[in-house]
């Protein structure tokens, strides 16, 4: 894993950079860490659900479709609300027929409602898969595969049905144009507003908000903006100077090749004149800049949306900017923080670790996957264990989808495609045995990290096709599965 991490950083260093520091590469700079940790965290969330289910001796191949279905539910509820209608037999102009009557309606659903209603659907489907597996004795592979197709098809049907609205593309399998709920704040003296809309407020409103700030606030914000403007001016100065030298260098080379002595002398003179960069003065601090910085400090009116799709560790990343690491080529702050999906992953992992390692329920899960008949003989409620884990797997898929919806303010039917295989692969790489009874949360977390880093690292390694990561992961997965099975047999005395 360490080699993959170094490869991700080292090989992603831009060719123009005069450094070998892997943390200067696109994969391990502040923005790279922000994006890569999001991919790892989202995979890690569903890998925990899939891994615990495998430990109990079952599979869930519906995870990816559940992700797409969950995202569809949340996006549609947030955009059009939630309504329940029932058919009632009545007289119509064409004779006796059915009329749809609305018995329950929520026109404007907030994030709490959207998430809660979606969980009602997804947890029910998780319970239903588990119930069918336990009561019929059918292989979970077949049952969950059936729901893979069912949920994916239902998702596409619902998208097309709701996208008959005038503000959507007819027949589309996505919902777009959702408000950026996580960035809606209460601006004193103005009301609710999205942070990005502050820049288009009338000048009189900007002046009014600016005058409402205390001198200490204005001074603090101005100091931060001044530093940012200074860094932007410094970087712009270096960029302009570098481009000027490169242009003069090319012209000088052409003049030498052509033997044009007069042009050669002129270019040499200009090179001497541009030996030192001409400083570009930093932009002044405007009232609008202060107001925008102030609005960034206001808390979101929708803490649920902010928790699911917002940022964490903003203060740490501000400090990274101050020490010159979290900075892009234009002098601006590269990344505002890590995605909150990382925090959700950590919380789910900690809860799962406590349940699996410190509670009786954890012993039940291991015994159910290790020897089902012995577990039943010892009074373990194996049916409830399995159903509960199918429900937990659906919960993890829903949280995965929620982070995507509230981060991007959109959703489409392709979300979650093949994620069930990636989740299972991450769990197996992390030491979970496919036959059940063995595995740890720490191992599943590590498997997700290895999977995520490998997927990104191979896209930067020169002379290697980016899709080669699938070859690598296939080899690692097979090796891990054989190793895990060998360890299981040694522990149980199989060989």
Tell me what the structure shows.
- With 495 residues, the chain is mostly helical.
- It has a domain at 181-302 and 324-337.
- 63% of the residues lie in helices and 8% in strands.
- It is built from 18 helices and eight strands.
- The chain has helices at 2-10, 30-55, 63-80, 111-136, 140-162, 203-212, 215-258, 261-273, 287-296, 303-309, 314-322, 341-358, 360-370, 372-377, 382-408, 419-429, 441-457, 468-492; strands at 82-92, 95-106, 174-175, 184-187, 191-194, 311-312, 338-339, 411-412.
- Helix 2 crosses helix 17, helix 16 crosses helix 17 (441-457) and helix 17 packs antiparallel against helix 18 (468-492).
- The radius of gyration is 28 Å and the shape is globular.
How would you sum up this structure in a few lines?
The chain is mainly alpha-helical and 495 residues long.
Spatial separation of the terminal alpha carbons: 30 Å
| Shape estimate | globular
How does the major sheet shape up? Answer: 2 strands, antiparallel
Identify low-pLDDT runs.
none
Number of helices, counting only DSSP H or I runs of 4 residues or more? 18
How helical, in percent, are the residues? 55-70%
Structural category is mainly alpha
Number of strands: 8
Mean pLDDT: 85
Strand order across the biggest sheet? 1-2
Radius of gyration: 28 Å
Order of helices and strands: HHHEEHHEEEHHHHHEHEHHHHEHHH
Work out the strand percent. 5-15%
Topology:
Layout: H1 2-10, H2 30-55, H3 63-80, E1 82-92, E2 95-106, H4 111-136, H5 140-162, E3 174-175, E4 184-187, E5 191-194, H6 203-212, H7 215-258, H8 261-273, H9 287-296, H10 303-309, E6 311-312, H11 314-322, E7 338-339, H12 341-358, H13 360-370, H14 372-377, H15 382-408, E8 411-412, H16 419-429, H17 441-457, H18 468-492
Antiparallel strand pairs: 1-2, 3-8, 4-5, 6-7
Helix pairs in contact: 1-17, 2-12, 2-13, 2-15, 2-16, 2-17, 3-4, 3-5, 3-15, 3-16, 4-5, 4-15, 6-9, 7-8, 7-9, 10-15, 12-13, 16-17, 16-18, 17-18
């Amino acid at each position: 894993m360490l080699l993959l991490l170094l490869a991700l950083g080292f090989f992603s260093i831009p060719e123009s950079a005069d450094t070998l520091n892997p943390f200067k590469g696109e994969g391990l700079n502040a923005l790279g860490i922000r994006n890569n940790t999001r991919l790892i965290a989202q995979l890690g969330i569903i890998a925990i659900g899939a891994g615990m289910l495998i430990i109990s001796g079952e599979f869930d191949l519906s995870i990816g479709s559940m992700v797409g279905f969950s995202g569809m539910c949340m996006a549609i509820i947030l955009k059009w609300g939630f309504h329940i209608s029932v058919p009632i037999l009545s007289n119509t102009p064409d004779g006796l027929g059915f009329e749809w009557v609305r018995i329950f309606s929520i026109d404007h659903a907030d994030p709490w409602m959207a998430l809660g209603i979606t969980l009602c659907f997804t947890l029910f489907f998780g319970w239903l898969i588990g119930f069918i597996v336990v009561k019929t004795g059918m292989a979970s592979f077949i049952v969950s595969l059936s729901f893979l197709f069912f949920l994916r098809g239902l998702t596409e049907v619902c998208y097309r049905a709701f996208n008959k609205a005038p503000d959507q593309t007819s027949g589309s399998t996505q919902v777009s144009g959702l408000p950026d709920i996580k960035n809606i704040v209460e601006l004193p003296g103005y009301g609710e507003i999205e942070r990005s809309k502050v820049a288009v407020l009338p000048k009189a409103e900007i002046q009014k908000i600016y005058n409402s700030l205390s001198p200490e606030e204005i001074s603090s914000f101005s100091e931060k903006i001044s530093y940012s403007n200074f860094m932007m001016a410094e970087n712009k100065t270096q960029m302009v100077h570098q481009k000027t030298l490169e242009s003069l260098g090319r012209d000088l080379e052409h003049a030498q090749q052509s033997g044009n002595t007069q042009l050669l002398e002129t270019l040499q003179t200009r090179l001497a004149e541009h030996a030192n960069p001409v400083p570009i003065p930093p932009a002044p601090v405007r009232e609008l800049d202060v107001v925008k910085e102030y609005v960034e400090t206001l808390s979101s009116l929708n803490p649920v949306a902010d928790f699911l799709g917002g940022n964490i560790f903003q203060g740490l990343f501000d400090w990274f900017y101050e020490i010159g690491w979290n900075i892009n080529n234009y002098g601006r702050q590269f990344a505002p923080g890590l995605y909150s999906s990382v925090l959700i992953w950590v919380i789910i992992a900690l809860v799962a670790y406590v349940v699996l390692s410190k509670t009786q329920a954890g012993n039940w899960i291991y015994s159910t996957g290790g020897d089902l008949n012995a577990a039943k003989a010892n009074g373990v409620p194996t049916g409830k264990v399995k159903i509960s884990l199918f429900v937990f797997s659906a919960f993890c898929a829903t949280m995965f989808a929620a982070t995507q919806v509230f981060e991007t303010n959109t959703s489409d039917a392709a979300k979650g495609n093949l994620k069930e295989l990636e989740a299972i692969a991450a769990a197996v790489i992390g030491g979970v045995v496919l036959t059940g009874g063995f595995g740890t949360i720490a191992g599943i977390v590590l498997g997700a990290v290895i999977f995520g880093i490998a997927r990104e690292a191979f896209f930067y390694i020169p002379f290697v096709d980016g899709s080669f990561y699938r070859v690598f992961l296939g080899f690692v997965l097979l090796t891990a599965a054989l190793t895990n099975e060998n360890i299981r047999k040694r522990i149980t005395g199989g060989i």
